[in-house]
């Protein structure tokens, strides 16, 4: 928090985007993918033809890395979608709060049922509260569930990199 505050990143959306975008696990996945799926012969042939490192990266590595890009994009999207803690810690402006923070507040709110004397009405109110909570949980997972089918073929291909093949 002190570093982010010294860089004047607190109370900004930029901080919420940057935190968690680059993780050690994602870097290891990308490195493993590149070392196992991009052949050294391709690099040697490109350098013999006069290709620089930058050109090789943009012309060969990026087009051949669609599957790992999709996997990393999905990982980052899910991590950001589920993350409410960074917004809770680094922002006090409610306009900057993500949807998950509002959903968290909705799930933590408990209705006061002290004024209800009828046990049947009390049971109905408690069931209604639970139903609303479960509906909020299901609705909050819909965007990621809609994103996953489009990235599934890349996801399976990218995760299998480095595994044993029979």
Keywords:
mainly alpha, 9 helices, 72% helix, 0% strand
Series of H and E elements: HHHHHHHHH
The assembly state of the depicted protein chains is single chain
What radius of gyration results from the CA coordinates? 23 Å
Number of strands: 0
Q: Count the helices. How many?
A: 9
Shape summary: elongated
Low-confidence stretches: none
Mean pLDDT: 81
Distance between the termini: 48 Å
Mind describing the biggest β-sheet?
none
Given the helix and strand composition, which structural class is it? mainly alpha
Strand content of the residues, in percent?
under 5%
**Fraction of residues in H or I helices:** over 70%
Describe the structure.
The chain is mainly α. The protein has nine helices and no strands. The chain has helices at 2-6, 13-18, 24-37, 40-48, 53-64, 66-82, 85-90, 99-108, 119-159. Helix 3 (24-37) runs antiparallel to helix 6, helix 6 (66-82) runs antiparallel to helix 9 and helix 8 packs antiparallel against helix 9. 4% of the residues are buried.
What is the strand and helix layout of this fold?
Elements: H1 2-6, H2 13-18, H3 24-37, H4 40-48, H5 53-64, H6 66-82, H7 85-90, H8 99-108, H9 119-159
Helix pairs in contact: 3-6, 6-9, 8-9
